[in-house]
Amino acid sequence: MVADKKSGTVICTSFTCGKRHDFRLFKDSNLQINQKIKILADTGFQGIKKFHKNSEIPKKRFKKQKLTPSDKLENRRISSQRVKIENIIGFIKRFKIISERYRSRRKRFSLRFNLISSICNFDLMF
Question: Taking the CA of residue 3 as centre, how many other CA atoms within 13 Å lie in the half-sphere pointing to its CB?
Answer without folding.
Answer: 26
